[in-house]
Design goal:
181 residues, mainly alpha, 6 helices, 0% strand, binds zinc ion
Length: 181
């Protein structure tokens, strides 16, 4: 995985670009939670579920399919009642789905660990993209301290933080200009 901080950075950039006007504060918390949720599957290790298992780390819970389940669920909980199937519901569903799915997609650009079950549950194969510039992050804080952690931060800065900041800054300018008109 890239570190969970980097997944959260992507969520903040996406929120800056797409958050509806007058966004409630919980919109941001849920955005960050969706972006890091797939890594909750590291619990599989302590439950004795092997890495390569369907429910193992980077398995089903890292798939875009799971991302879409989360998106629909979050939108339906946030906008219960009469707003289901409204325009806002579709927007929230898509937004939170893509944000959750972005996690596995970003992980597929990392240079270590097992691949990501991007096509789960239809195909349990583990995949990476052919180009993998992001240094894989160690599992656990202890291994993060030291040289490996520094290399991870450096690669995430270039490949995630910097592009995300540019997207956020560009979106903020565009939205400010649009709001003036
Ligand atoms: Zn991950």
């Amino acid at each position: 995985m890239p570190s969970i901080i980097s997944h959260a950075v992507v969520a903040l950039a996406a929120g800056t670009a797409f958050a509806p006007r007058e966004t409630p504060e919980h919109f941001w918390w849920i955005s960050v939670a969706c972006s890091i949720l797939p890594d909750a599957d590291v619990l599989a290790f302590s439950l004795g579920i092997p890495y390569g298992h369907f429910f193992g780390h980077r398995g089903f819970f890292h798939s875009p399919f799971f991302g879409f389940l989360v998106g629909f669920l979050v939108a339906s909980v946030l906008l219960h009642g009469g707003e289901i199937f409204s325009g806002r519901w579709f927007f929230y569903s898509l937004y939170f789905s893509l944000l959750t799915a972005s996690h596995g997609v970003l992980d597929a650009f990392t240079n270590g660990g097992l691949g990501i079950a991007l096509l789960s549950p239809f195909d349990s194969g583990r995949y990476f993209f052919p180009w993998r510039p992001i240094m894989v992050s160690p599992i656990g804080i202890a291994a993060f301290i030291g040289n490996w952690g520094l290399m991870v931060i450096k690669s995430e800065f270039w490949w995630i933080w910097l592009p995300s900041s540019l997207v956020a800054a560009f979106s903020a300018v565009i939205r400010t200009l649009l709001a003036r008109n």
